[in-house]
Each structure stands twice: as C-alpha cells, then as structure tokens.
Amino acid sequence: MTAIQSNELCLSYGDTRIFESLNLSLPKGKITVFIGSNGCGKSTLLRSLARLLKPQKGQVVLDGSDIASLATKEIARRMAILPQGPAAPDGLTVLQLVKQGRYPYQNWLQQWSKEDETMVQRALELTHMTPLADRTVDSLSGGQRQRAWIAMTLAQGTPTILLDEPTTYLDLAHQIEVLDLLHQLNEQEQRTIVMVLHDINLACRYAHNIVAIKNGKVCAEGRPQDIVDESLIATVFDLDCRVIQDPLFGTPMVVPFGRGKQPVFQDFVPDAAVTAASAAATAAVREEQPV
Fold first, then answer.
1. How many domains does the chain have?
2. Which of 5, 113, 121, 258 has the highest local Cβ count within 10 Å?
3. CA 206 – CA 282 distance, rounded (Å)
4. Do 165 and 251 belong together in one domain?
5. pLDDT for 226-275, tens place per residue?
6. 92 and 136 in contact (C-beta within 8 Å)?
7. Which residue range is the domain that position 130 belongs to?
8. pTM of the entire structure?
C-alpha cells in the first residue's frame, strides 16, 4: 500500500527547476529515507509532500486523497512534519510547545481534553523531555531543543510523520535514541516515517526504503541491501568507497575513501568470522522484509 504518492510533480524555487515530472510512491507503514548531497532537492521534495511548497504542476496524494483538496487541519491530523531549524517564540516553554501539536484537534466545540493531555505527556516521556517541560525552549541546548520539537511532532498523533534531518545538533548517542524512537513508532504503531538523513550508514540501518536523489532526480529507490553499493555512492555523492556488510545488522555499511588521506588496506577483506556473521544477519533481515 502507498502512503504518499507524487504524480508528474514539478517543483521550482524562483526560476530554478528542482524536479521535473517526478513520480514517486512511498510505502505505507514503512520507514523511507531520502539521501543525497547538499542542495540536491531532498528538503524541497519533503516540503512539497507536506504541502508547504506549492508545485508548478502535478499532484501529491496522501492516503488516496489529493493533498491540494484537503483542509489544513485535516492534513495536520493525517501528517506531521518537522522541518529544518524550526524556531519558537521567545519565552515559550517546552510544555507549551508540545501542546501546539494538539492544535489540529481543537475547535470552538472541543477544547483541551483528557486525550490531548495524555498525548502531550506521552510525547514528553518518549523524548525524555518531561524533566525539562517547564524550561523555555530558547534556554535549551541544540540537542534538547531538537528533542522538544520532535515531542511536539509526536503529540500530533498522526499516522504519517515527515522529518527533515531529525538528528541535527544531536550527538551520536542521541541520534541513535531518536532513530530508535522512530523505529519503535513504526514497529509498534505502524506509523509511516519519511525523513531526510545525511548519515548513509544510519539510513541503511533504519530504512525499509531508500530514495537516492541527485540533481533533482531519483537515481535509485528500494531496500538498502538492494540499491546501496559503491556505484550508487559514486553517482550520488561523487565519492569513492567500499560498501561492506554491517557486522551487527547485516545492512550495507559505507566506508569512504579520503580525497587526501588514502586507505592503508587497499584490498581489505573482512575477517571470516565477521563476514559469516554479516551474511547470517543479512539473511535474517531479508526474511523479515518482504520484497
């Protein structure tokens, strides 16, 4: 099943055409990650899928409905988006920010409800922001601020979540924590997750579906183990590398060559035990993920 689909989508910034006649189908209940170099159009595409950017022509379909025909609140009940670098008003507390995620469910007949309170508290707990609920957003560190915005997105309670570089400003431990959380939402609640990531190895580890973008075109789309290889990385990033199997997860792991510093082991062959473990992990992954 398809969660989001683009039909003959054309996107531009000013006089610059970014995408031309793009047809894309993102699977429902899966994690899709957009990868590509800076400026290739990943964020532009994500914004268009959320109706934050109007296309020159073409159509975006959300769960079978033309997104252009839906009311703003209706879209907000179906889809949440966390853009790059969001800004909160001065003096706004974390709790007040997270409560904004329940705005789509408010009207003059229905004000704040017990369900709203439950969703806000759960979002704070999932992101470990409960102890910081009374702090102002502008007093937080970059990583804490990012987690607060993610909490607001989760409080929205939508079946589809779009995130533009959600691990920005986070150290490695918190990057894994956020991606594990998104994985949990997908596994346990079948949420559709669509996000932009710069770390290719984390993208391969967490994504069911990868969309590789180069200069406004989709170079490849599919399961990480089916499409991520040395040729794709060279095409998308203009980078020489080796792609080996992650010894823990069996997913593709990109080991880049340096443009200045050259690799010591030009003909590196993984240890036999590591190779065997990787092969077993890959087989298990493929069994769990239907074609």
1. 2
2. 5
3. 14
4. no
5. 999 999 999 999 998 999 999 999 999 999 987 777 667 666 555 554 44
6. yes
7. 2-222
8. 0.84
